[in-house]
Design brief:
Elements lengths: L8 H14 L14 E7 L5 H10 L3 E4 L6 H10 L6 E4 L7 H14 L3 E8 L2 H11 L11 H16 L4 E4 L5 H12 L10 E8 L10 E4 L20 H9 L3 H21 L4 E8 L5 H16 L3 E6 L9
Parallel strand pairs: 1-3, 1-4, 2-3, 4-5, 6-8, 6-9, 7-8
Helix pairs in contact: 1-10, 2-7, 5-6, 9-10
Protein backbone atom coordinates (compact mmCIF):
# COMPACT_ATOMS: atom_id res chain seq x y z
CA UNK A 1 0.00 0.00 0.00
CA UNK A 2 1.67 3.21 -1.19
CA UNK A 3 0.81 6.84 -0.52
CA UNK A 4 2.12 10.38 -0.63
CA UNK A 5 5.69 10.98 0.64
CA UNK A 6 5.67 11.49 4.41
CA UNK A 7 2.18 10.07 4.77
CA UNK A 8 1.80 7.72 7.75
CA UNK A 9 0.38 4.22 7.56
CA UNK A 10 -2.77 5.35 9.36
CA UNK A 11 -3.23 8.34 7.04
CA UNK A 12 -2.88 6.10 3.96
CA UNK A 13 -5.52 3.72 5.26
CA UNK A 14 -7.86 6.54 6.25
CA UNK A 15 -7.53 7.98 2.74
CA UNK A 16 -8.34 4.55 1.29
CA UNK A 17 -11.43 4.36 3.49
CA UNK A 18 -12.60 7.78 2.29
CA UNK A 19 -12.06 6.78 -1.33
CA UNK A 20 -14.04 3.58 -0.84
CA UNK A 21 -16.91 5.52 0.70
CA UNK A 22 -17.12 8.05 -2.12
CA UNK A 23 -16.79 5.45 -4.89
CA UNK A 24 -20.14 3.89 -3.95
CA UNK A 25 -21.02 0.88 -1.85
CA UNK A 26 -20.54 -2.49 -3.49
CA UNK A 27 -22.20 -5.51 -1.93
CA UNK A 28 -22.75 -8.71 -3.84
CA UNK A 29 -25.51 -11.23 -4.10
CA UNK A 30 -27.05 -14.14 -2.26
CA UNK A 31 -25.39 -17.50 -2.17
CA UNK A 32 -26.80 -19.38 -5.10
CA UNK A 33 -28.60 -18.66 -8.32
CA UNK A 34 -31.10 -20.78 -10.20
CA UNK A 35 -34.75 -20.76 -11.25
CA UNK A 36 -35.71 -21.25 -8.42
CA UNK A 37 -33.04 -21.75 -5.78
CA UNK A 38 -33.36 -24.82 -3.57
CA UNK A 39 -31.63 -24.96 -0.19
CA UNK A 40 -31.37 -27.98 2.08
CA UNK A 41 -31.05 -26.81 5.69
CA UNK A 42 -29.63 -29.46 7.99
CA UNK A 43 -27.09 -29.91 10.76
CA UNK A 44 -26.82 -30.85 14.40
CA UNK A 45 -30.10 -30.80 16.33
CA UNK A 46 -30.43 -27.64 18.44
CA UNK A 47 -28.20 -25.54 16.18
CA UNK A 48 -31.01 -23.31 14.89
CA UNK A 49 -32.65 -24.97 11.90
CA UNK A 50 -36.11 -23.66 12.81
CA UNK A 51 -34.79 -20.11 13.24
CA UNK A 52 -33.05 -20.37 9.88
CA UNK A 53 -36.23 -21.52 8.12
CA UNK A 54 -38.27 -18.74 9.71
CA UNK A 55 -35.74 -16.17 8.54
CA UNK A 56 -35.89 -17.52 4.99
CA UNK A 57 -39.69 -17.54 5.13
CA UNK A 58 -39.58 -13.85 6.07
CA UNK A 59 -37.48 -13.28 2.93
CA UNK A 60 -40.23 -14.80 0.77
CA UNK A 61 -38.99 -18.38 0.51
CA UNK A 62 -41.27 -21.42 0.45
CA UNK A 63 -40.16 -23.35 3.53
CA UNK A 64 -41.00 -26.83 4.78
CA UNK A 65 -39.48 -28.73 7.70
CA UNK A 66 -38.96 -32.45 8.34
CA UNK A 67 -39.95 -33.56 4.85
CA UNK A 68 -38.41 -36.95 4.01
CA UNK A 69 -35.57 -36.40 1.56
CA UNK A 70 -37.03 -38.89 -0.95
CA UNK A 71 -40.11 -36.65 -1.36
CA UNK A 72 -38.18 -33.59 -2.57
CA UNK A 73 -38.71 -34.31 -6.31
CA UNK A 74 -42.46 -34.66 -5.68
CA UNK A 75 -42.47 -31.30 -3.90
CA UNK A 76 -40.67 -29.72 -6.84
CA UNK A 77 -43.22 -31.13 -9.27
CA UNK A 78 -46.12 -29.84 -7.16
CA UNK A 79 -44.66 -26.33 -6.93
CA UNK A 80 -43.93 -26.25 -10.66
CA UNK A 81 -47.47 -27.39 -11.50
CA UNK A 82 -48.82 -24.48 -9.48
CA UNK A 83 -46.46 -22.00 -11.12
CA UNK A 84 -44.79 -21.24 -7.77
CA UNK A 85 -41.34 -19.86 -8.57
CA UNK A 86 -40.28 -18.90 -5.06
CA UNK A 87 -36.93 -20.20 -3.80
CA UNK A 88 -37.39 -23.29 -1.65
CA UNK A 89 -35.82 -24.23 1.68
CA UNK A 90 -36.29 -27.71 3.17
CA UNK A 91 -35.28 -28.58 6.71
CA UNK A 92 -33.93 -32.10 7.24
CA UNK A 93 -32.51 -33.75 10.34
CA UNK A 94 -31.28 -37.14 11.42
CA UNK A 95 -34.84 -38.50 11.56
CA UNK A 96 -35.21 -38.20 7.76
CA UNK A 97 -34.62 -41.89 7.14
CA UNK A 98 -31.84 -42.87 4.73
CA UNK A 99 -30.73 -39.25 4.68
CA UNK A 100 -27.51 -39.48 2.66
CA UNK A 101 -28.74 -41.84 -0.08
CA UNK A 102 -32.16 -40.23 -0.41
CA UNK A 103 -30.72 -36.71 -0.41
CA UNK A 104 -28.18 -37.52 -3.12
CA UNK A 105 -30.83 -39.05 -5.38
CA UNK A 106 -33.38 -36.30 -4.77
CA UNK A 107 -30.90 -33.46 -5.28
CA UNK A 108 -29.71 -35.05 -8.53
CA UNK A 109 -33.31 -35.30 -9.78
CA UNK A 110 -33.99 -31.64 -9.00
CA UNK A 111 -30.75 -30.52 -10.67
CA UNK A 112 -31.66 -32.49 -13.80
CA UNK A 113 -34.78 -30.32 -14.02
CA UNK A 114 -32.61 -27.20 -14.16
CA UNK A 115 -32.73 -26.08 -10.52
CA UNK A 116 -29.71 -25.22 -8.39
CA UNK A 117 -29.52 -27.04 -5.06
CA UNK A 118 -27.47 -25.80 -2.10
CA UNK A 119 -26.69 -27.40 1.26
CA UNK A 120 -26.49 -25.41 4.50
CA UNK A 121 -25.11 -27.17 7.58
CA UNK A 122 -25.74 -25.63 11.02
CA UNK A 123 -23.43 -26.61 13.87
CA UNK A 124 -22.87 -25.66 17.50
CA UNK A 125 -20.47 -26.57 20.30
CA UNK A 126 -21.46 -29.48 22.51
CA UNK A 127 -21.64 -27.48 25.73
CA UNK A 128 -23.98 -24.91 24.19
CA UNK A 129 -26.17 -27.67 22.74
CA UNK A 130 -26.45 -29.37 26.12
CA UNK A 131 -27.49 -26.07 27.69
CA UNK A 132 -30.06 -25.38 24.96
CA UNK A 133 -31.70 -28.79 25.38
CA UNK A 134 -31.73 -28.36 29.16
CA UNK A 135 -33.30 -24.90 28.94
CA UNK A 136 -36.02 -25.93 26.45
CA UNK A 137 -36.56 -29.41 27.96
CA UNK A 138 -36.78 -30.83 24.45
CA UNK A 139 -36.00 -34.45 23.68
CA UNK A 140 -33.05 -35.11 21.44
CA UNK A 141 -33.91 -36.88 18.14
CA UNK A 142 -31.39 -39.64 18.91
CA UNK A 143 -33.49 -41.11 21.71
CA UNK A 144 -31.56 -44.38 21.97
CA UNK A 145 -28.75 -42.70 23.89
CA UNK A 146 -28.99 -42.29 27.66
CA UNK A 147 -27.70 -38.71 27.98
CA UNK A 148 -27.90 -35.56 25.86
CA UNK A 149 -24.10 -35.51 25.51
CA UNK A 150 -24.10 -39.10 24.20
CA UNK A 151 -26.94 -38.30 21.80
CA UNK A 152 -25.05 -35.30 20.41
CA UNK A 153 -21.90 -37.38 19.92
CA UNK A 154 -23.89 -40.09 18.13
CA UNK A 155 -25.61 -37.54 15.89
CA UNK A 156 -22.29 -35.94 14.93
CA UNK A 157 -21.05 -39.35 13.83
CA UNK A 158 -24.17 -40.00 11.75
CA UNK A 159 -24.12 -36.53 10.16
CA UNK A 160 -20.41 -36.45 9.32
CA UNK A 161 -20.90 -37.51 5.71
CA UNK A 162 -23.48 -34.79 5.14
CA UNK A 163 -21.27 -32.10 6.69
CA UNK A 164 -18.35 -33.04 4.46
CA UNK A 165 -20.46 -32.40 1.34
CA UNK A 166 -21.26 -28.74 1.95
CA UNK A 167 -19.28 -25.54 1.44
CA UNK A 168 -21.66 -23.52 3.60
CA UNK A 169 -21.39 -24.09 7.35
CA UNK A 170 -22.64 -21.76 10.06
CA UNK A 171 -21.58 -22.23 13.67
CA UNK A 172 -24.27 -20.82 15.95
CA UNK A 173 -22.46 -21.33 19.27
CA UNK A 174 -21.96 -17.59 19.84
CA UNK A 175 -25.11 -16.39 18.04
CA UNK A 176 -28.41 -15.42 19.61
CA UNK A 177 -31.65 -16.16 17.76
CA UNK A 178 -31.69 -12.60 16.46
CA UNK A 179 -28.05 -12.72 15.35
CA UNK A 180 -28.61 -15.98 13.47
CA UNK A 181 -31.63 -14.50 11.72
CA UNK A 182 -29.55 -11.45 10.76
CA UNK A 183 -26.79 -13.70 9.39
CA UNK A 184 -29.26 -15.65 7.26
CA UNK A 185 -30.74 -12.40 5.97
CA UNK A 186 -27.27 -11.11 5.06
CA UNK A 187 -26.53 -14.29 3.13
CA UNK A 188 -29.79 -14.84 1.28
CA UNK A 189 -31.66 -11.58 0.81
CA UNK A 190 -32.25 -10.48 -2.77
CA UNK A 191 -29.72 -8.00 -4.12
CA UNK A 192 -28.72 -6.59 -7.47
CA UNK A 193 -28.14 -9.32 -10.04
CA UNK A 194 -24.72 -7.87 -10.94
CA UNK A 195 -23.39 -8.58 -7.46
CA UNK A 196 -21.08 -11.50 -6.77
CA UNK A 197 -22.16 -14.59 -4.86
CA UNK A 198 -19.43 -15.28 -2.30
CA UNK A 199 -19.70 -13.82 1.20
CA UNK A 200 -16.51 -12.90 3.10
CA UNK A 201 -17.29 -13.01 6.82
CA UNK A 202 -14.74 -11.02 8.86
CA UNK A 203 -14.68 -11.50 12.63
CA UNK A 204 -12.58 -9.88 15.34
CA UNK A 205 -12.31 -11.87 18.56
CA UNK A 206 -10.41 -12.31 21.81
CA UNK A 207 -8.44 -15.50 22.33
CA UNK A 208 -9.41 -15.54 25.99
CA UNK A 209 -13.04 -15.94 24.89
CA UNK A 210 -12.27 -18.77 22.44
CA UNK A 211 -11.46 -19.04 18.73
CA UNK A 212 -14.47 -18.89 16.33
CA UNK A 213 -15.23 -22.50 15.45
CA UNK A 214 -16.26 -21.85 11.85
CA UNK A 215 -13.28 -19.71 10.78
CA UNK A 216 -11.43 -20.74 7.62
CA UNK A 217 -8.52 -18.37 8.34
CA UNK A 218 -7.39 -17.41 11.86
CA UNK A 219 -4.72 -14.74 12.39
CA UNK A 220 -3.12 -14.13 15.79
CA UNK A 221 -2.11 -10.47 16.26
CA UNK A 222 -1.19 -10.64 19.95
CA UNK A 223 2.44 -9.92 18.99
CA UNK A 224 1.49 -6.29 18.30
CA UNK A 225 1.89 -3.68 21.03
CA UNK A 226 -1.26 -3.64 23.15
CA UNK A 227 -3.34 -0.42 23.43
CA UNK A 228 -4.80 -1.83 26.64
CA UNK A 229 -1.68 -0.69 28.46
CA UNK A 230 -2.14 2.93 27.34
CA UNK A 231 -4.44 4.50 29.91
CA UNK A 232 -6.12 6.87 27.46
CA UNK A 233 -6.87 4.04 25.02
CA UNK A 234 -7.99 1.31 27.43
CA UNK A 235 -11.71 2.28 27.55
CA UNK A 236 -11.90 2.68 23.76
CA UNK A 237 -12.12 0.04 21.00
CA UNK A 238 -10.44 -0.44 17.66
CA UNK A 239 -13.33 1.39 16.01
CA UNK A 240 -12.15 4.62 17.67
CA UNK A 241 -9.58 6.61 15.70
CA UNK A 242 -7.01 7.01 18.54
CA UNK A 243 -6.81 3.23 18.94
CA UNK A 244 -6.66 2.57 15.19
CA UNK A 245 -3.96 5.18 14.76
CA UNK A 246 -1.95 3.59 17.59
CA UNK A 247 -2.29 0.10 16.08
CA UNK A 248 -1.15 1.19 12.63
CA UNK A 249 1.50 3.75 13.53
CA UNK A 250 2.92 2.51 16.84
CA UNK A 251 2.11 -1.15 17.23
CA UNK A 252 3.26 -2.37 13.81
CA UNK A 253 -0.19 -3.26 12.58
CA UNK A 254 0.22 -1.89 9.07
CA UNK A 255 3.09 -4.21 8.10
CA UNK A 256 1.27 -7.22 9.56
CA UNK A 257 -2.02 -6.40 7.86
CA UNK A 258 -0.27 -5.95 4.50
CA UNK A 259 0.89 -9.56 4.72
CA UNK A 260 -2.60 -10.78 5.64
CA UNK A 261 -4.02 -8.79 2.72
CA UNK A 262 -1.46 -10.31 0.34
CA UNK A 263 -2.50 -13.85 1.33
CA UNK A 264 -6.21 -13.11 0.97
CA UNK A 265 -5.70 -11.23 -2.31
CA UNK A 266 -4.23 -14.47 -3.63
CA UNK A 267 -6.60 -17.02 -2.09
CA UNK A 268 -10.04 -15.39 -2.13
CA UNK A 269 -10.38 -15.34 -5.95
CA UNK A 270 -9.58 -19.06 -5.93
CA UNK A 271 -12.32 -19.69 -3.35
CA UNK A 272 -14.72 -17.71 -5.52
CA UNK A 273 -13.77 -19.65 -8.63
CA UNK A 274 -14.29 -23.01 -6.88
CA UNK A 275 -17.83 -21.95 -5.96
CA UNK A 276 -17.43 -21.31 -2.25
CA UNK A 277 -20.49 -19.63 -0.74
CA UNK A 278 -18.78 -18.14 2.31
CA UNK A 279 -15.21 -17.70 3.51
CA UNK A 280 -14.70 -16.82 7.18
CA UNK A 281 -11.65 -14.80 8.24
CA UNK A 282 -10.97 -14.22 11.95
CA UNK A 283 -8.38 -11.95 13.56
CA UNK A 284 -7.76 -12.33 17.26
CA UNK A 285 -5.99 -10.40 20.00
CA UNK A 286 -6.15 -10.99 23.74
CA UNK A 287 -9.60 -9.64 24.59
CA UNK A 288 -10.98 -8.78 21.15
CA UNK A 289 -11.47 -5.03 21.78
CA UNK A 290 -8.51 -3.13 20.32
CA UNK A 291 -5.96 -4.63 17.91
CA UNK A 292 -8.19 -7.21 16.22
CA UNK A 293 -11.05 -4.73 15.82
CA UNK A 294 -8.83 -2.08 14.20
CA UNK A 295 -7.33 -4.63 11.80
CA UNK A 296 -10.69 -6.11 10.81
CA UNK A 297 -12.07 -2.62 10.11
CA UNK A 298 -9.11 -1.83 7.83
CA UNK A 299 -9.21 -5.28 6.20
CA UNK A 300 -12.90 -4.85 5.36
CA UNK A 301 -12.11 -1.69 3.40
CA UNK A 302 -9.35 -3.44 1.48
CA UNK A 303 -11.48 -6.48 0.61
CA UNK A 304 -14.46 -4.41 -0.51
CA UNK A 305 -12.14 -2.72 -2.98
CA UNK A 306 -10.95 -6.17 -4.14
CA UNK A 307 -14.55 -6.93 -5.22
CA UNK A 308 -14.49 -10.70 -4.91
CA UNK A 309 -17.36 -11.03 -2.45
CA UNK A 310 -19.77 -9.29 -0.12
CA UNK A 311 -17.98 -8.35 3.08
CA UNK A 312 -19.79 -8.86 6.41
CA UNK A 313 -18.09 -7.65 9.61
CA UNK A 314 -18.68 -8.93 13.17
CA UNK A 315 -16.81 -7.67 16.24
CA UNK A 316 -17.63 -10.60 18.48
CA UNK A 317 -16.00 -9.48 21.72
CA UNK A 318 -15.65 -5.70 21.34
CA UNK A 319 -18.44 -5.04 23.84
CA UNK A 320 -17.03 -7.34 26.52
CA UNK A 321 -15.59 -5.60 29.58
CA UNK A 322 -12.61 -3.29 29.33
CA UNK A 323 -9.78 -5.75 28.84
CA UNK A 324 -7.82 -5.77 25.56
Amino acid sequence: MSGAPGESAWERRRAAAAAATTSGAWEPVRIDTGPPQWLIVTGISGSGRTTCLRALEDLGWFCVDNLPARLLPALQEELSSRGDTRPVAVGLDIRAGALVLDLDASAAAIRERGHAVGLLFLDCSDDVLVRRFAETRRKHPVLSERTIAQAIARERQLMLEIRERTTLNIDTSDLTVHQLKARITELFEEKDAAETRMVIALTSFGFKHGVPRDADYVFDVRALANPHFVDALRPLTGMDEPVARYVFETAGGDALLQRIEALLDYSLPMHRDEGRAIVSVAIGCTGGRHRSVALIEALSIHLRALRVGRVVVTHRDAARGSRA
